[in-house]
Write a structure and sequence with these properties.
The chain is an all-alpha fold. Helices cover 70% and strands 0% of the residues.
Length: 63
């Protein structure tokens, strides 16, 4: 019985993961960018403070 519950929980989490992965990508939007474009986006994010905001809010608990 315990093995069946573990298997059921695992199957449910896998199914939920697949459902989440299918719904997170924007439909019809081209996400391919060159290395240079990504580097420019990172430079802009650093200059306007977005990276500092992420560091202070999102990653606060991981230190």
């Amino acid at each position: 019985m315990k093995h069946a519950m573990i298997l059921l929980a695992f199957a449910g989490s896998v199914a939920a993961g697949f459902a989440h992965a299918q719904t997170t990508a924007p439909v019809g939007k081209d996400l391919s960018r060159s290395r240079e474009q990504v580097q420019q986006e990172l430079i802009r994010a650093q200059q306007d403070g977005q990276l500092n905001l992420l560091q202070s809010s999102v990653y606060r608990g991981s230190r």
